[in-house]
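Quick illustration for those who missed Monday's session on complexes.
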Amino acid sequence: MTTPSHSSNFSSTNVDPAELAKFSDLAHRWWDKESEFRPLHEINPLRLAWIQSLVPLAGKKVLDVGCGGGILSDAMARQGAQVLGVDLAVRSLKVAQLHAMEAGTQGVEYQEISAENLAAEQAGSFDVVTCMEMLEHVPDPAAIVQACAKLVKPGGWVFFSTLNRNPKSFFFAVVGAEYVLNLLPKGTHEYARMIKPSELADWVRAQSLDVMEMKGMGYNPFTRQFAMVTDTDVNYLMATHKPLSNEF
Ligand code: SAH
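Prediction with S-adenosyl-L-homocysteine bound:
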């Protein structure tokens, strides 16, 4: 149906329908903390605390790209941010909205729009942009990075997280998480789509964002706990900053 694009000019094609369908099919389970989404619920307080350590969220205008069921969007709104969550899987957005209503979360809205189209409409409008566990699911991740860079205000922050690509990450994140521990559904991650930190850093710098900090996310299968670590070989997060002088 949709042809994957390697050019950011054709933003509407920068989506893999099979990837969206995977998330849509599971949408009703986004807020089930024992479901396929358990890892995201467990890492959520860790990534939230890390973001807050670099930029306090209260009063900030935040965009969450590829928000899914709103696990991070909701938590950021609860810290006092004004959050817009965007995704292209409508069922996930409905679940996110319903959760906000049921939980009484203030200050969060959800919209079905691509990052590229939003960037064309609202360049330079967000203090903080988050794009977590999403880049490894799109055909042209560099175009998403470009859109995020466009959407953030000068002086603002963009946070990414994704999965490294090397034998160790294949072993832990694909074989271990999907086939041995059953933490994630089989087929969640495709090796060729996983992204080395050096590649992400190149895309980030090409958009005049500065790489400020990187962290790894480790999982201990014995304690069944996640922790922020220095080792970025498997899951990692990257904090980037748009210099004040870099006006659009
Ligand atoms: N960021 C959330 C969800 C991660 S799961 C979190 O970390 O909690 C990956 C999400 O990316 C899914 O919700 C999926 O629907 C979304 N996604 C995949 N391709 C997309 C695209 N091209 N544009 C926007 N969202 C996309």
